[in-house]
Each structure stands twice: as C-alpha cells, then as structure tokens.
Design brief:
By secondary structure, the chain is α/β, with parallel strands linked by helices. Among the domains are: about 140 residues, no CATH class; about 130 residues, Orthogonal Bundle (Isoleucyl-tRNA Synthetase, Domain 1), CATH 1.10.730; about 60 residues, no CATH class; about 100 residues, no CATH class. The protein is built from 23 helices and 18 strands. Helix 1 links the parallel strand 3 and strand 4. Pfam families: tRNA-synt_1e (PF01406).
C-alpha cells in the first residue's frame, strides 16, 4: 500500500491462524477460484449450528463473487455413508420393529426401558470420569512442560467435560421422565422418554441383523432432501457441484490404492490405515491446522466409531477404508468388502474435481482436527509424487454457534433446527444476525444477538421507508436542486461510508464493520432528512431526493451482496413481502380501492349521524391501525406535517399492533388496579368510621352527662365540669367529631354512599380479575 499499489483482499487463513493476502492459485490477476465446502452428514435434520457453516460461507461466497468479481467453482459434498448415518438408520429401524413387537405389552416395554436407561447412565458416568481423567492428566502435563500446544490440548479436553456431564444429566432426566409416565400405561410416552436408550440396547443385541442397504440409503436420502430444502429456505446459493460419497466409491478405492503405493498407507485385516509416521518421514507435516491436538486419542476419535484398533501401527493412524461388519452397508474392494472412512471421502471427491491444488476449503471450526488435518495429509500423500506439500491454499473455518455456553450439537440435544428457527425468524433476519457477527469467531445464539439483529433491521426498514416517503413528497422537478453545505456534508459522509465498507471487505470480509459503516451513514442521512423537512415546512430548502436515493441505493447494494436483499440493481430497500404493498398488482390495487371506499362510507355515516370530532378521529385511527395494516402499509402521523406511509410486512405490523394493544391493556389493567386499591382503602376507611359508636357512648368512661349542644357537662362521677374541664372536654368532642365528619358529609350528600361504594369495589374487583 505504501508503494501506491491498491490494497489487497486479506483472509483469515486457518493454516496460518492469521490474516494473509489472498492470491488465487491461477495467479494474482486471475478471477478463477476453486472452492470445496464440507457439506452435511445427512443423518438427521440440520440445526442452526449447521446453518452457521452454510449460511456464513454463502455470505463469504457472495462477497467474493458479487463484490470482488471472482468466478468460483463451488463444490459441496453430501456424506451419505458414515458411522452416524449407519447408526441412526439402523437404530430407527430396530426401534420401529420393537415398538410393533411389544405393542399391547406395556409391562415388558417399561421394564426394558428402565434397564436400557440404567445401562445408558452407567456408560455415560464412565465417560464423564474418563473425560475428567484425560483433562486432568493433560493439564498436569501442560503445567509440567509449560508448552503452549499442551495448554491448548488441555483446554480442548477440559471443554469436553461439561459436554459429557450434560449428556449424563440428560440421561438422568430421561429416567425421571420415564418414572413420571410409568403409571399412565402410555407406550408413546415411554418411547419419548427412553427411545434413545432402548435403541442403543437393541443395536447392541440385534444390530448385526440389519443387512438391507435400502434402509441406509432411504434414511440418507430423506435428510439430504430436507437439507437442500433448508438451503432454499435460507436463501443460499446452490453449489455448482454436489457430490455424494455413495457415487464416488471407485474414486475412493483408487485414492486408497495410490496412497498405499506411495508408501503412506497399509492394509490390515480388510481395512486400510493411513500411516502418519511414514507420512512425516517423507517430509510432510501432520496436523497443520491443530498441531497441538496430534496425539490426543480423545480428540482424534471425535465423530468416528471404533477409532482404536489393534491393527494400527501407531495410535495417530486412522482408517481410510473400513472392513465390512454385520449390520453395515459395504462395497467390494481389493481388501475385501468394506466402506470408506470418514476423512478419505472429501479428499477423493474434491481431488477428482479440483485436482492437486484448490484455492479455498471451508467448514466449521470443529472440523479443523481431525477431519481437515487428515484430509490434508491424505491428499498430500496422494499427490506426493507430484511434489504436493500444500493441497489447500486457504482454509476458512467459521466459529461455533454456541447456546447456553456450549456448542450447539445434536449429541448434546441443545439444538434449534433450521425449520424451528425459521418459524421464529425470517431468512433475512437470520442472515442479518450472521453478518452482524465476525464469521471466524464463536457466535452466541441468544437474546443479545437477536436483539441486535432486530434493532438493525428496524433501522434499515425505517430508513428505506423514509427515503421513499420523502421521494413521494418532494418531487425533484418541483423543488430546487441546488446544494448547500448540508448536502455537501451528507455527500462526504456517503463517500466516507463507501471507503469504510471497502476497507472492511478487504479486511477478511469484516461484515460487522461493514454494517457499522452503513449504520453511521444512515444516522447521518436521517439527521439530514429531519433537518431539511423542517426547513421545507418553513418555506425553505427541501430534502435532496437524489442524494438520499444515492445513500439508500448504496446500502441496498451492499445488503444485496450479503444476500439480505434480493432485488434489482437500482432498487431501494427490502423487497415487498407477499401481502405487502407493492407485491400484488391489480389485486393489491383493488384492496386499496376497497379500503378507501369503506373509509369514505364510515365518514359519511358518522357525519349523517352528527358525529363528534372524537368519533371521526377514531375512524381515522381504525384506517391506520387495522385496514392499512392488513394491506401492508405503515402510516405514521407527524406533528404539524402530513402523515407518511411506508410499505411493510403485514405480519410485522400486526405483531407491533398486538404489542401496542398488550401494553395498552397492561396500562389499563394497572390503572384499574390502582383505582381498585384506592377505592378499597376508601371503603375500609369509611367502614371503620361507620363502626364507631356515637360520641356520648365513646366518651362514657369519662363523662356521664351531655348537653343539647353535644358537649359533656358532668364527669363520670356526676360532678359538674369546671371551665378548665369543659375546655378539655370540648377538644375531645371536636376530635371525635372530626374523625366522623367525612362519612357524615358523604351520607348527607347521598344516603346511599356506603352501598354504592361497596358495589363499586365489587365491580372493580371483578373487572380486574377478568383482565
């Protein structure tokens, strides 16, 4: 930059754990890129943790394609052969058959469920203890050696402890849930509480009997279809190439054979293992992404069944091809029937399409080790004779999506499916939530991120709506287009925002910084609009619509790059949703004509009936708060100025109206409760006064005789009162009379006062109870 050369795009590269200049493999001037993204393992419904990967890299892809102008060959795999798929398909099949087997025999089902949960608790307790032991041992080793790599490994192992503890708690909760439904005789409730534990026991006992390959393919096909539908719902661009493991078996076998031929893999008892030690002796580096994790069996075995094997030459070696086992799908190979290992699948499929060098490889940060490190090792071993020591130039990993302090995960049962999330948020809102967070860091799926997204969406919608409203109110041909200092200032602000956006894009596609730059530009534009509308109302300069449209169009363009807006290049703001103004052509126009006609009828009827001003205003409010809401129009009243309207989603407007009604109802309820409290205290006070005896009776213990004026004349013994005693007695009578006076006054005004007050308190009590 100091030499006058334009700034380069820099990306956070996991291979270096820092931002580095991005240079395509085809050369600095090339616009051609190759990209492989680890796709889904289709064993269950995708959740928001998966969306963190696919949606995040859809945003990065769009920036590279639509902002920087790269042409990308985007390859995604679908893992349809995997330990998780095999296990889930087999267990679901066994569980369904068992449900038929025990139909009508609830005691047998309950006993089996209790035994299964007891087994699950015992196994999970052992896993918790092992996780604690491994973490403690690694922490001790790290403390002794003082190595940063050992410290990171210790931290990673320590993070596994609360995950295993959560699983143990969930197992205990399942046992408690089972006992809670045990007396109901409801089989469905038992399977709901203990289904996973029952399936695990069934699998251990009968798993080897499930031999039909159609069971596994049908399971994978179901969730692959669901995943592709999820991509569409999220608004993600589809890959250019979608690869299935089951369609690349021969390529995987060939890949294994070549690695064996290059001396970096070996066959044993029908399986093939990668030789990590031979690989390193050949001058390669194993564990480029997470070197500190190499040697940890707990981390290396994550997401892979049967990692430990007596056939392996070294503990770090891993399976490229797994010998066939009963209850698993298999294919023929030079080593006998078997199936691919997890890591080899991506290496073989990506290499068959992209060759010995690719620009970008992406996935979640949990894939760094072992999956991506093993991919790199396999591929470098495969291309060893071609001198390959770097199969991938840029490894991009998105941060975990955390919920309640833990990674969102199916195994932890702390997930929100994509479908569930889309029942709460729109796809636009989820995408906006993601661009407000750094793509390479952990993201918390919680109230704070949702609140930030909601506030930013509201800012954008209000800005676009205001610009369009100003454009309707101040036609360019009807106002002066001469700029003053205010316009120059806003124009400068727009330019500065554009520079900030570009710098943020170059800085590893820093989407939060981009959104902050747009937000500052919008705040400045809003301030300008308000000031110019005020001067226009006073007969002065009006807002410069063309300048405001420039700001709005630029914001729209950047949002379009992120996939938040999907509209024409010259459009402004969010597109109209179904049912929103601007989305329905003739049908929408008919709706507005009907609304205007109905409103006119209301006003005419009110006028004929001699309506008061308040009734006419109420009719106007109904048009704003009900009729126009259903038509997707937000009508905003302004003091001493014409109302402005903005198109919006009817569902959003109804939700806002519902919230206003709720607040109004709460305020009314609070007001009525306060009135009830006041009236209840008043009733209690007057009931207390009413119970007081007449003054002569109340003072009988002091005075025995009273005159016609109500004042005492003799003490309790009958002796006349002297002047001093009379004065004291008068004060006591006046005090007693003052206490009784409020009720006497009320009863003089209305003899039914107490009865009416009692009725009012009873009525208010009933109304408060009904609110």
């Amino acid at each position: 930059e100091g030499s006058g050369e334009p700034a380069r795009l820099r990306l956070y590269n996991s291979l270096r754990d820092e931002k580095v200049d991005f240079v395509p493999a085809a050369g600095p001037g090339s616009k051609q890129l190759s990209w492989y993204i680890c796709g889904p393992t289709v064993y269950d419904s995708a959740h928001m943790g998966h969306a963190r990967n696919y949606l995040t890299f859809d945003i990065i892809r769009r920036v590279l394609e639509d902002y920087f102008g790269y042409n990308i060959l985007y390859v995604m795999n679908v893992t349809d052969v995997d330990d998780k798929i095999i296990l889930r398909a087999r267990r679901n099949h066994l569980l369904a058959n068992y449900a038929k087997e025990v139909e009508g025999d609830f005691p047998a089902l309950l006993a089996y469920a209790r035994a299964a949960l007891a087994t699950a608790q015992a196994k999970q307790t052992a896993k918790v203890e092992k996780a604690k032991t491994d973490a403690a041992a690694m922490a001790q080793e790290a403390a002794t050696k003082g190595s940063g790599a050992d410290k990171r490994k210790a931290d990673e192992l320590s993070a596994l402890v609360p995950q295993e503890e959560l699983k143990l708690k969930q197992t205990a909760d399942a046992a408690a849930k089972l006992e809670g439904v045990a007396g109901a005789g409801d089989a469905a409730a038992v399977f709901d509480a203990a289904g996973d534990a029952i399936a695990a026991v069934l699998d251990a006992d009968r798993g080897a009997t499930v031999t039909d390959p159609a069971i596994y393919r049908a399971h994978a096909a179901k969730y692959e279809k669901e995943f592709l539908e999820d991509l569409t719902l999220l608004g993600c661009r589809f890959p250019d190439v979608l690869t299935r493991v089951s369609e690349y078996i021969q390529e995987i076998v060939d890949f294994c054979q070549k690695i064996i031929g290059n001396g970096m893999a070996y066959a044993a008892n029908g399986s093939v293992y990668f030789d990590t030690q031979s690989f390193q002796r050949e001058g390669h580096v194993y564990g480029k992404l997470n070197p500190w994790a190499v040697g940890s069996a707990a981390l290396a075995a994550e997401s892979e069944a049967n990692f430990d094997s007596a056939d392996k030459r070294h503990p770090s070696d891993f399976a490229l091809w797994k010998a066939a086992k009963p209850g698993e799908p298999s294919w023929e190979s030079p080593w006998g029937a078997g199936r691919p290992g997890w890591h080899i699948e991506c290496s073989a499929m990506a290499s068959s399409l992209l060759g010995a060098k690719m620009d970008i490889h992406t996935g979640g940060s949990d894939l760094r080790f072992p999956h991506h490190d093993n991919e790199l090792a396999q591929s470098e071993a495969f291309y060893h004779c071609e001198g390959c020591h770097q199969w991938v130039n840029y490894f991009l990993h998105c941060g975990h999506l955390n919920i309640e302090g833990l990674k969102m995960s199916k195994s932890l049962k702390n997930f929100v499916t994509i479908r569930d999330a889309l029942s709460t948020f729109t796809a636009r809102q989820l995408r906006l939530m993601f661009v407000l967070q750094p793509w390479e860091r952990q993201m918390v799926y919680g109230e704070q991120s949702r609140a930030e997204m909601t506030a930013r969406e509201s800012q954008l919608k209000n800005f676009f709506g205001s610009v369009n409203a100003v454009a309707r109110e101040y036609k360019t041909e009807a106002v002066s287009t001469r700029w003053a200092a205010e316009e120059m200032e806003l124009s400068t602000g727009i330019g500065e925002a554009q520079e900030r956006v570009h710098a943020a894009m170059l800085d590893s596609i820093n989407t939060p910084a981009v959104m902050d730059a747009l937000s500052d530009m919008i705040k400045q534009a809003n301030k300008y609009m308000a000031a110019r509308q005020a001067t226009a109302a006073a007969g002065g300069a009006a807002p410069q619509v063309l300048l405001l449209k420039k700001a709005a169009a630029y914001a729209t363009r950047i949002l379009s790059v992120f996939g938040i807006v999907d509209g024409a290049a010259d459009s402004i703001g969010f597109p109209a949703a179904e049912g929103q103004a601007g989305s329905g052509g003739v049908d929408a126009a008919a709706g507005f004509v009907d609304a205007i006609a109905a409103f006119r009828d209301d006003v005419r009827d009110l006028c004929r009936a001699g309506a008061e001003k308040g009734e006419l205003m109420a009719a106007c409010d109904r048009l704003r708060d009900e009729t126009l809401v259903d038509l997707g129009i937000r009508l905003e009243d302004r003091t001493n100025a014409k109302a402005i309207w903005k198109p919006d989603d009817p569902a959003v407007l109804r939700a806002e109206a519902g919230e206003r009604r709720r607040q109004q109802q709460e305020a009314a309820a609070k007001k009525k409760q306060n009135l009830l409290n006041t009236k209840s205290k008043e009733l209690e006070k007057f009931q207390g006064i009413a119970k007081l005896p007449p003054i002569p009776v109340a003072l009988a213990d002091k005075y025995s005789k009273f005159g016609e004026d109500g004042l005492p004349t003799a003490d309790k013994d009958g002796s006349p009162l002297d002047d001093k005693a009379l004065s004291k007695a008068k004060k006591e009578v006046d005090k007693a009379a003052k206490v009784r006076a409020p009720l006497e006054k009320k009863l003089q005004e209305d003899p039914q006062f107490m009865a009416k007050l009692q009725e009012e308190v009873e009525r208010l009590t009933a109304e408060v109870a009904a609110m």
